[in-house]
Amino acid sequence: MTQQRPPTTEPMSRQMQDCVQACMSCHTVCEETMSSCLQLGGEARMPIMRTLMDCSEMTRICADMMMRRSPLANEMCMMCAQACDMCAEACMSMPDDDRMTRCAESCHRCSEMCRAMTGSTM
Questions:
Q1: How far apart are CA 45 and CA 74, in angstroms?
Q2: Are 56 and 27 in contact (CB under 8 A)?
Q3: pLDDT tens digits for 19-42?
Q4: 21, CA 20 to 30 Å: which among 15, 48, 81, 83?
Q5: Nearest CA-CA partner of 88 in 6, 15, 30
């Protein structure tokens, strides 16, 4: 049985606030990019869609866990960084698409922020 910690009333650190913002921004960009991919269609985009879905979900969950100071937030930040890296790589497979480039940039920023968070106390 896991011992429950008392809820924290301390405000989030600036680093954590920035990471939550990066996660939410990446989530939004991934959702918008998925919508665009669906409109364009094509089976070639299915692998990209999968990575976009994974990244979108991971970034939202990661932000939620940081905001509630979950004891699993560090581990989630590492998983989120991996999902963002995979998504950025998939998006960069279409470098002529501005939306994909924007998504890759957002994913890179989120990955960097999440990796930085793993070195600090949640």
A1: 31
A2: yes
A3: 999 999 999 999 999 998 888 776
A4: 48
A5: 30
The token pair at 109 is 């920023």
Burial (0-12, 13-18, 19+ Cβ within 10 Å), 11: exposed
Angle, alpha carbons 70-18-113 (nearest 5°):
80
**pTM for the whole structure:** 0.86
74 and 41 in contact (C-beta within 8 Å)? no
Per DSSP, the chain holds a count of helices (H) and strands (E) of: 4, 0
Closest CA to 63 of 91, 43, 83: 83
Residue given tokens 């930040």 in the structure block: 77
- Joined together, the tokens standing for residue 41 give 């269609």
